Amino acid sequence: MDDATRRLAVLGSPIAHSMSPALHRAAYDLLGLEHWEYTRIEAVGADLPALLDSRDESWRGLSLTMPLKQDVIPLLDDVDEIATLTDAVNTVLLADGVRRGFNTDVGGIVRALRAVGCDQVRTGALLGGGATASSALAAMAELGAASVDVFLRRPEAGGPVAELAARLGLRLEVRPIADLARLEAVDLVVSTLPGGADPGVEASHALRRSAPLFDVAYAPWPTPLVAQWLEDDGTVVHGLEMLLHQAVLQVRIFTTGDPFAELPDEAAVLAAMRLAIT
Predict the structure, then answer these.
(1) Is 126 exposed, middle or buried (0-12, 13-18, 19+ CB in 10 A)?
(2) Half-sphere exposure of 72 (CA within 13 A, CB side)
(3) Domain ranges of the chain
(4) CA end-to-end span of the chain, whole Å?
(5) Residue 37 to residue 10: CA distance in whole angstroms
(6) What's this model's pTM, rounded to 2 decimal places?
């Protein structure tokens, strides 16, 4: 389809563990883009200005991990609506001398949940308050949530997520994470705690049995919170699903410039990408 070399990479620190190269290579091979290269680059925020300035015309885009999702924003020419709303960019398109930023995490979460039949959320519980939590909150709003409780180890740090909830028109209550033991019923629980982090609280058995848990972490697996849900035979959505579905949207952006433009035979692309990481 395209004989020109196009270079892409995922940036972060540490980055050696990233599954993104396997995902993207599987997609470009299936799409007939054999000359497209996707690699890893170890980088922290201070590296971004020089790194972006040094990309030549062969570079098509970058994927970003935290904390680069926020560090990169002042260096971009244009930021899409979702990235502006969440204050997080995980995808940079480099084309015609313009740097455009996107957030595919929100769409990745929505697509992952809809794929398992969770397409209507009225009430939710969210663990964590960082950039991924902001994307999760926006995803819940897109699925119809009207009320979300956010559980934090330090509730006083909940200002940014509360401000986002106000912009989204959500009713939000910031609660100490210990309160998770007393929560009994919501439509969805989303954890954005770092992989392997122990929440330090046992969620109520009623919650584990009734509410699906989407844990965005995927290594190590199962996370301590997922292990709680599995003890009660609760429903769990694997964190790799978010990684997979947000990467499909990145491939759309890198190949077409548009996160809403479906890929040719996208179901086959998705299947190839899933196979590459399982």
Answers:
(1) buried
(2) 34
(3) 6-103+241-276, 118-238
(4) 27
(5) 11
(6) 0.95
Going by their DSSP bridges, the two strands 59-64 and 91-95 should be labelled as antiparallel
- Which is the catalytic residue, given 69, 99, 245, 252? 69
pLDDT in tens, 122-166: 999 999 998 899 999 999 999 999 999 999 999 999 999 999 999
Proportion of the chain in helix, strand, coil states, percent, rounded to 5: 40, 20, 35
The mean of the pLDDT values for the chain is: 96
Provide the residue type at 266 as one letter.
Answer: E
Which fold is adopted by the domain 6-103+241-276? Rossmann fold (3.40.50)
Report d(CA 250, CA 261) in Å as an integer: 11
- Contact, 62 vs 32, CB < 8 A? no
For strand 123-127 and strand 98-102, is the pairing parallel, antiparallel, or unpaired?
unpaired
Structure tokens at 215: 């844990």
- Alpha-carbon Rg for the chain in angstroms: 19
pLDDT lower than 50: segments of the chain: 1
Identify whether 69 is a catalytic site residue. Answer: yes
Q: Which CATH class is domain 118-238?
A: alpha beta
The string of DSSP codes covering 56-122 is -TTEEEEEE-TTHHHHTGGG-SEE-HHHHHHT---EEEEETTEEEEE--HHHHHHHHHHHTT----S
